């Protein structure tokens, strides 16, 4: 799915129960998208409304054991997909027992850009997530009073791990955007009272 808080809640919730998430580029389609799902040996796919057509294109090639969960309103165009919103409304209110998860266990897969072929899955453990986010936190001297503006895609290491890691581990507020907007960049920074910007090479002219 595209950048939204729900995505973060889902893959951190999966990590809580010991499941492994796969952070897939939402721009991928057909062969590349199918490859990423298969490479992760996914047992389920959670997708949002804007990704329904892309999932519909590959759904017939997914194994029968792979469940499809749709997040959004209206009728889902993907045959066999189950409304995740309805399931969540029916879920119990008590907290289920959490399995014992080791620091070295896998937490999710992050994919390469695929410039030299199909995207390749890089393994991220709980420890790798922690140490990468912690290193940036210490290096920049961030605190829980900072507001970090980081409109990169959540499937990207710089945002999903280094950026969101500041919120999970240290309580830093992180501003995420559905899509990066050069024209709205500084307006967003002022609107959200951002104190820290994470800038990549292509944004230097800003």
Short structural summary:
This protein is an alpha/beta fold. The chain is built from seven helices and nine strands, in the order αβαβαββαββαβαβαβ.
Can you characterise this structure?
With 206 residues, the protein is α/β, with parallel strands linked by helices. The chain folds into two domains: 1-91 and 106-124, Rossmann fold (3-Layer(aba) Sandwich), CATH 3.40.50; 126-199, 3-Layer(aba) Sandwich (Rossmann fold). 35% of the residues lie in helices and 17% in strands. The protein has helices at 5-16, 30-39, 52-58, 84-90, 126-140, 157-170, 185-191, and strands at 21-23, 44-48, 67-71, 82-83, 106-111, 121-125, 147-149, 173-175, 196-197. It has a three-stranded mixed sheet. Strands 2-3-4 form a three-stranded parallel sheet. The chain has a three-stranded parallel sheet with strand order 8-7-9, with helices on one face. The longest helix is centred in the middle third of the chain and has 15 residues, at 126-140. It is globular, with a radius of gyration of 18 Å. It starts with a helix and ends in a 9-residue tail after the last strand. The model has no long low-confidence stretch (mean pLDDT 91). Keywords: ATP-binding, Ligase, Membrane, Nucleotide-binding, Transmembrane, Transmembrane helix. InterPro entries: AMP-binding_CS, AMP-dep_synth/lig_dom, ANL_N_sf. It comes from Dreissena polymorpha (Zebra mussel). This is Long-chain-fatty-acid--CoA ligase. It catalyses: a very long-chain fatty acid + ATP + CoA = a very long-chain fatty acyl-CoA + AMP + diphosphate; tetracosanoate + ATP + CoA = tetracosanoyl-CoA + AMP + diphosphate.
């Amino acid at each position: 799915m595209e950048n939204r808080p729900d995505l973060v809640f889902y893959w951190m919730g999966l990590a809580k129960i010991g499941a492994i998430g796969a952070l897939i580029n939402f721009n991928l389609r057909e062969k590349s998208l199918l490859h990423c799902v298969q490479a992760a040996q996914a047992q389920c796919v959670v997708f949002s409304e804007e990704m329904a057509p892309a999932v519909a294109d590959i759904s017939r090639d997914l194994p029968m054991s792979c469940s499809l969960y749709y997040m959004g309103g209206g009728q889902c165009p993907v045959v066999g997909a189950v409304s995740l919103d309805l399931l969540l409304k029916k879920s119990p209110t008590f907290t289920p027992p959490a399995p014992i998860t080791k620091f070295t266990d896998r937490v999710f897969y992050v994919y390469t850009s695929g410039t030299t072929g199909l995207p390749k899955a890089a393994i991220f453990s709980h420890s790798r997530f922690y140490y990468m986010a912690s290193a940036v936190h210490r290096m920049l001297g961030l605190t829980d009073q900072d507001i970090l503006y980081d409109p990169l895609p959540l499937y990207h290491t710089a945002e999903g791990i280094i950026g969101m890691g500041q919120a999970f581990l240290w309580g830093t507020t992180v501003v995420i955007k559905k899509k990066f907007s050069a024209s709205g960049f500084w307006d967003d920074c002022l609107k959200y009272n951002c104190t820290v910007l994470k800038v990549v090479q292509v944004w230097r002219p800003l």
